Amino acid sequence: FGQINLVLMALVALDVLVKTPKWPRGMLIGLAAAVKLTPIAFLLLFLLRRDRRTSATILASTFGFTALAFAVMPATSAKYWLDTLPDTGRIGAAYFATNQSFKAVISRFGPPELMASVLWLLAVAVMLLVAVVAIRRALEQGDLVLALFANATAVLLASPVSWSHHWVWVAPTLLAPALGAWCAPDAQRLTAIAAGLALVFLIGPHHLFPTGGDLELGWAAWQHLLGTLYVTAGFGFLLWLAFGRRTDPDSASPEQLPNAETAS
Known about the structure:
By secondary structure, the chain is mostly helical. The chain contains 12 helices and no strands.
């Protein structure tokens, strides 16, 4: 599990973080979105930067690479977009323990389908508001790496299905404080917290509880609490970025961020 997600993460990270790319910025995200639709959500970061050129490149390249795939493999492409992608039931129930997203957390309590959908949409709406604040704040501090991680976390939480092996962004996010990749005055404390969270993601507490055969629907309250720690950690990360993070004015370096005119 996770192999294609590592490749997609690399494409997105290169497109966002390389200062002077040899390609039109946004093209690699478009390629990733043509392979697996989810990466198109990284458009959010560029919209918040008001980078219309890169935003347009993402959309155009997504369409272009998808059209190329249809030209090369028309039958396979048609099956993927028209049959496989809309058939969400093929990958299993939303409440499966390895699904670590808002929809999964809600579904494991077994509410009626309509109620589950409404609660999920409300949760995602609130989370996206927090994510927008978090990304904006990181960008204002010149911390493009942190803005990227915030966008990635929002994508994982909002997606109806985020299997545990989809959470590949956790590795660079937790390594960043130790490597000095964040503009943070309290990097030493953050490194210690990141080490503790690394254990959570390494163990995967949801694997420790009864699963399969609808057993997730019978979890006790404490099992729900521990079995959704990926989601709790992800949303906590966004809340911290948006409202709790201490910043050092001297460490902020907005000049490191290409402006909308030079970003691509």
